[in-house]
Design the sequence.
């Protein structure tokens, strides 16, 4: 999956740890807008450390471009750190919800089999509709959609990607390092 | 309204004082050592202006004629002092008028703290009178911005603003304060900001990289150094001359690097860029090692990147990590303050000299001098040329003045021919290229350095963009000298039209008012010069005049600035004529 080609577009996931501040989403997206880069998926959530948020941003671009973008994101005052990942460096998932008419379940067990064999589950059953939930990579949730479509999907929604890196880094350790760093003041040390 | 003061116990009152948000703004600024503010009042910032009224004897406020002027004046003040420039504006149009100056400060790394009034927090988002989302609008052009909606946030917001604006790579910060926060009360206590955990302005230098750079420098046969604004910002002037004198490396400067070194230094070979000197441009593609310190490889310096210094190894010393490998790929990147990096390099590099290599630059100089410079500086016939005006100005001021330029031909000519001797004496709009910058920036510069001679050199186009600031100069008697180089054209655009658009002079011919009458209207003295023989005497009269002075010089209508690297061409394709 890893390619060294700087010119070819490939999928990247950016994981951005930030202070929980209003307006920061705008600050971050401006950096993409300036370079006319399209964000494929975006997720913002709190982390295991209170007051720290994580932005997970998925997009297709070149390696050269993503490196420039991540540096400009890191430069934002309220950004704690930002990391770029290729797909083989992270564990990632998306969640998809499919709303189908209840009546399709009444004609045999084909839908039920579909749900079971795709590792999906039934979230709610209402008189008129049933909501099916599936987590997985985009191709998998898309494949499920393709299979359900012939039966009539009333609504389909898919979340942005959430990702966790394969590194051993702990958010709290990173914060401690940032708090103790000597980069807040000018040093003129020469050795 | 916050009524916390009413609920305080008497004993607590003694330890901290209760102020309104508006007073807290002024006291916070004073705690940061601010003594000069450029601004313009209006509805949403009235409580702050009301508080300012009581501090008139401690803080000087300069009422500009347009908020753009306030931002540029604060820039001029900052550029000549190294201190953070401060400006005030009201909400809505007041705030949007600041934006050009803020964008200029951002791209030219100038520390500003801009304080804008905002509609009361209850009206935010309702399209209230004079409401604009200035936090949203200024986001792409500020280093940081923040909206204050409660009085008690004010001291910390301002402390952060000053720390962020003037640390690391400096830049503008905007604090938007709602009117209710200005009226509200707080227990005031001011603590300077010294650390923000998500902000790391001074990266730890990697000495292993310094060693690698030293190895390249010691081995290089044709090393070439480019310096920029970072030398001035980090106050590395001495370290720079130590470095070039020890290593014998020829060096060139960017537009904003000018004044960071003695202009007659034997290792200095000229200035870079589209209208820079001949040698510094073509030798970029002949050196074997390119060392860049405190500069960002702007496209006006590099020309076509795919043909830029491809033969050379590249060392980039830069404090902003986002600039490293942005335009030019480096072999060794030292992410550090320029002064620290130069000190570390100076301790480690071998003493060396490169006389033959240096002589190659001097040979280029000779050619440029014969083909361009002599004719520009010492014309015998024809209309007055911009270059000779600057040459004479340089002679009479001995290169000691602070010279503030606007944008266009006169700016390139001044940068070529004025010999800036004093650090931070070159004030110009580099990255953004903002016409209208010079006059308000010169006002700010004079207030920042009242003992220095401050001269604004401006074209007829740029002068008409902010000429209302003559009112400010007049009201406060700001002793700036202004020279309009009037060619009756938007000269730089006209030059491009001549060279690249087959002389189709589309909307570049421009009339001017009678500037002497305008000056007279503001009570400012001046003179119009049309003959070469009057130039020296007129410059002398201007310099001897006690107070602001406006000198208009009629110059050659269709004069061109050479050398020139055509847009999109390689630096080696620089044209001398």
Sequence:
């Amino acid at each position: 999956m890893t390619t060294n080609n700087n010119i070819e577009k490939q999928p990247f996931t950016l994981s951005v740890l930030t202070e929980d501040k209003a307006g920061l989403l705008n600050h971050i997206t401006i950096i993409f807008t300036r370079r006319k880069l399209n964000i494929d998926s975006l997720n913002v959530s709190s982390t295991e450390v209170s007051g720290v948020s994580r932005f997970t941003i998925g997009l297709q671009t070149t390696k050269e471009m993503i490196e420039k973008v991540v540096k400009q994101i890191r430069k934002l005052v309220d950004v704690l750190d930002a990391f770029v990942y290729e797909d083989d460096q992270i564990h990632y998932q998306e969640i998809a919800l499919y709303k189908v008419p209840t009546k399709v379940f009444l004609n045999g067990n084909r839908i039920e089999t579909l749900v079971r064999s795709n590792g999906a589950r039934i979230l709610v059953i209402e008189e008129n509709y049933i909501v099916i939930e599936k987590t997985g990579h985009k191709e998998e949730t898309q494949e499920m959609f393709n299979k359900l479509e012939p039966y009539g999907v009333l609504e389909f929604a898919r979340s942005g990607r959430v990702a966790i890196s394969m590194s051993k880094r702990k958010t709290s350790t990173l914060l401690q390092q940032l708090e103790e760093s000597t980069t807040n003041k000018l040093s003129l040390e020469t050795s | 309204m916050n009524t916390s003061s009413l609920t305080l116990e008497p004993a607590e009152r003694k330890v901290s004082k209760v102020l309104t948000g508006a007073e807290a703004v002024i006291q916070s600024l004073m705690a940061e050592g601010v003594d000069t503010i450029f601004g313009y009042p209006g509805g949403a910032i009235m409580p702050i202006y009301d508080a300012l009224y009581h501090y008139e004897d401690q803080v000087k406020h300069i009422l500009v004629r347009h908020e753009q002027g306030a931002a540029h004046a604060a820039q001029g003040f900052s550029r000549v002092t190294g201190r953070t420039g401060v400006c005030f504006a009201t909400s809505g149009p007041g705030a949007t008028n600041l934006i050009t100056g803020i964008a200029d400060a951002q791209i030219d790394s100038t520390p500003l703290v801009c304080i804008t009034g905002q509609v009361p927090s209850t009206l935010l988002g309702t399209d209230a009178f004079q409401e604009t989302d200035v936090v949203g609008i200024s986001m792409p052009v500020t280093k940081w911005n923040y909206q204050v909606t409660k009085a008690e946030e004010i001291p910390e917001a301002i402390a952060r603003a000053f720390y962020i604006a003037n640390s690391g790579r400096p830049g503008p910060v905007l604090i938007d304060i709602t009117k209710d926060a200005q009226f509200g009360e707080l227990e005031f206590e001011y603590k300077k900001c010294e650390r923000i955990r998500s902000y790391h302005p001074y990266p730890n230098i990697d000495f292993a990289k310094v060693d690698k750079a030293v190895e390249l420098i010691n081995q290089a046969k044709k090393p070439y150094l480019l310096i920029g604004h970072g030398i001035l910002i980090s106050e590395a002037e001495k370290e720079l001359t130590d470095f070039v004198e020890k290593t014998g490396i020829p060096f060139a400067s960017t537009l904003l690097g000018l004044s960071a070194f003695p202009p007659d230094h034997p290792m200095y070979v000229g200035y870079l860029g589209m209208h820079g000197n001949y040698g510094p441009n073509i030798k970029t593609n002949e050196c074997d090692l390119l060392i860049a310190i405190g500069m960002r490889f702007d496209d006006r310096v590099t020309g076509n990147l795919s043909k830029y210094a491809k033969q050379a190894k590249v060392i980039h010393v830069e404090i902003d990590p986002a600039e490293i490998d942005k335009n030019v790929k480096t072999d060794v990147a030292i992410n550090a303050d320029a002064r620290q990096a130069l000190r570390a390099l100076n301790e480690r590099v071998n003493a060396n000299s490169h006389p033959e290599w240096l002589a190659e630059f001097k040979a280029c100089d000779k050619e440029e001098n014969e083909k361009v410079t002599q004719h520009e500086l010492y014309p015998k016939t024809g209309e007055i040329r911009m270059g000779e005006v600057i040459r004479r100005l340089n002679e009479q001021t001995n290169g000691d003045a602070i010279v503030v330029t606007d944008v266009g031909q006169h700016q390139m000519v001044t940068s070529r021919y004025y010999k800036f001797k004093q650090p931070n004496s070159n004030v110009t709009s580099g990255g953004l290229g903002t016409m209208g910058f010079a006059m308000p920036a010169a006002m700010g510069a004079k207030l920042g350095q009242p003992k220095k001679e401050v001269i604004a050199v401006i074209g007829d186009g740029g002068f008409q963009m902010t000429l209302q600031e003559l009112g400010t100069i007049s009201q406060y008697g700001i002793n700036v000298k202004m020279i309009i180089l009037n060619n009756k054209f938007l000269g730089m655009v006209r030059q491009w039209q001549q060279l690249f658009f087959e002389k189709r002079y589309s909307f570049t011919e421009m009339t001017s008012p009678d500037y002497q009458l305008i000056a007279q209207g503001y009570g400012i003295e001046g003179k119009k010069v049309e003959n070469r023989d009057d130039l020296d005497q007129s410059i002398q009269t201007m310099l001897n005049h006690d107070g602001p002075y406006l000198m208009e010089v009629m110059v050659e209508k269709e004069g061109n600035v050479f050398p020139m690297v055509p847009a999109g061409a390689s630096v080696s394709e620089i044209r001398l004529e």
Notes: Residues 63-74 of chain A form the longest helix (12 residues). The domain at 91-162 of chain A is CATH 3.30.70.1150 (Alpha-Beta Plaits). The radius of gyration of chain A is 21 Å.
